[in-house]
Sequence to fold (231 residues):
Amino acid sequence: GAGVSQSPRYKVAKRGQDVALRCDPISGHVSLFWYQQALGQGPEFLTYFQNEAQLDKSGLPSDRFFAERPEGSVSTLKIQRTQQEDSAVYLCASSLAPGGGAKNIQYFGAGTRLSVL
Amino acid sequence: KQEVTQIPAALSVPEGENLVLNCSFTDSAIYNLQWFRQDPGKGLTSLLLIQSSQREQTSGRLNASLDKSSGRSTLYIAASQPGDSATYLCAVSKWDNAGNMLTFGGGTRLMVKP
Fold:
């Protein structure tokens, strides 16, 4: 596709429910990032993939959060037993290569807004 | 741990004004700095990227400067227009073998009044 696509755009979950958020990066992009953006704040890093390898998951807030990118393309962020504090916009970004200069400009999707009731 | 701060948090100006948005960061060992624009309900659009070896970048009415040693960047917007109304985010990256994840500031919410 022309850009990074995320689905669903909006998700309402009851507390305790499991959710899965999908990210389709730009075709051919090696690097993929997940960020969490709370209302009125800047995005915060969650995890990073280089192809199918998850090289950094230091930002995941708890073991209820799990991300995968099995084929090195589409990625899924899964949140188990959702809590109210998980309510946020989840942004996915991809970049062409883990290198320097223009190659590592990150292109962002529109995000998934998760509301946990 | 890298911390990024943006001042002011919100700004309202009349159309046509020149304005400056400020960004500061605590760890000067950065790989690059980016300025993004975020419109309500939408993702982030990259405006300018400054490599750590560069001092500034320009695109149209936008000019971003970087002083790595003092941990500061400014985004200058000339002749502001109502269409510039959005949240502006700065972000720094620190390269390591695990990639170049971004650390963001809290953003400046800009409103340009006609």
User: Anything to note?
Assistant: The CA atoms of residues 11 and 114 of chain A lie 5 Å apart. Chain A has no helices and eleven strands.
